[in-house]
Amino acid sequence: MTPLRVEVMDTTGVPPADRFPLWVDMAARVAAPIALTSDHAHDFQGCARMVRLGGIELTRFRYQSLAGRRTPRMIRQGDPEVYQLALTLAGASAISARRRESAIPVGHFTLIDWSRPHDLTHAGEQEGNRPAASVTAVIPRTLLPLDTDRVDRLTAGTISGLEGPGALLAQHLHHITRYPEQFPAAHGPKLAEITLSLVSMTLATWLDAEDRLPGEVRRQALLSQVRAFVERHLADPELGPQAVADAHHVSLRTLHRLFAAEEETVAGLIRRRRLDRCRRDLGDPLLRHHPVARVARRWGFTDAAHFSRAFRAAYGTGPQAYRETQAHPRP
C-alpha cells in the first residue's frame, strides 16, 4: 500500500540560525506569505506535518510562541484566495481581523481569510515553556459550496470543535494528520471530499444555512456522522441499523439509501469494525489472559459461535488460532 503523500519539516535538522527562516518559508507555502516574529527566533523549535489531499492541504503544527501579520501589501503582491480553518490543540491563540479580536481556546477553530489583513498570535503553555500546537485545513474559496459573503462573517471568530459537526471535523483532521500512514494514497480524493463536506457543514451550522448545502455535501456529512457514531458505540450489543437510524432521526430506508453508493452496508460497517477491534485485542499480549468470549462481548458480540464464524470468514482463521499465531509467530 502506498500511503498518503506527507511532507515533514523539523527545524532541529538545520543550524539554529537557519531555523526560523526555514519556518517562515514553510508557513508561506502552507497558505501565503506572512510576517512572523518570535522571541525564540535565534533558535526556533518547530515541526510541521503536511498532508495534501488534492486541492486541500492539512497541516499539523507544533512550535514555540510566535506572532504573525498579513499586510495589505502582501495581499497585493499575491492573493491565494484561500481560507484556513485552524484548530487550537495547545497554547493560547488569538486573531485580529475585520475589526474583530478573538481568543481561540483549546478545542476551538477560527476561520482565517488570507485575502484580508489579519494578525495572529499563538503562545505556548506556562509562559511559553511548552510548545503551542494546532492543526489546520487550507481550502480554496471556490471549493466551498456556500455564499462567500456569508462565510466572511465567520472569519476571525470562534467556532467550537467540541460539539456538533465541529467536533466531527476536529476528530477527522486530528486522525488524518496524526496517522497519515493508515490511509492509502488512492483514498486521497475521497478524503478530500469528506474533509470539504465536514468543513462546509461546520460553517453552515454556524451560519444556520445547512439547507443551502448541495445534497451530496449533506450526504457526505451525514455519512461521516454515522461512521463516527458507530465507532463510539461498537461495544453496545444493541447497535444495529435501526439504532443508528433512530439516533440520527432518519428512517431505516433513508439510512440504507445513504450507504447504497458505499462499499458496504451499515450492518457490514458495524460488523467489520467490531471484528477489527476484536482482532486488535486478541493480538495484544496485555489482554492474553482475557478469554476469547470476553473479548468478543467487549465489542458487542453476544453469541460466541456467531463471533467465531464471522471472525473466520473475515480473516481465514478462528479467533483462538489467530491469538496463538500472534503469541508465537512463525520465524
Automatic annotation (TrEMBL):
It comes from the Bacteria. Transmembrane segments: none annotated. The keyword DNA-binding applies. InterPro entries: AraC-bd_2, AraC_XylS_family_regulators, Homeodomain-like_sf, HTH_AraC, Tscrpt_reg_AraC-type_HTH. SMART domains: HTH_ARAC. Keywords: DNA-binding, Transcription, Transcription regulation. This is Transcriptional regulator, AraC family. Residues 224-325 form the HTH araC/xylS-type domain. It comes from Micromonospora citrea. One of its GO terms (molecular function) is DNA-binding transcription factor activity.
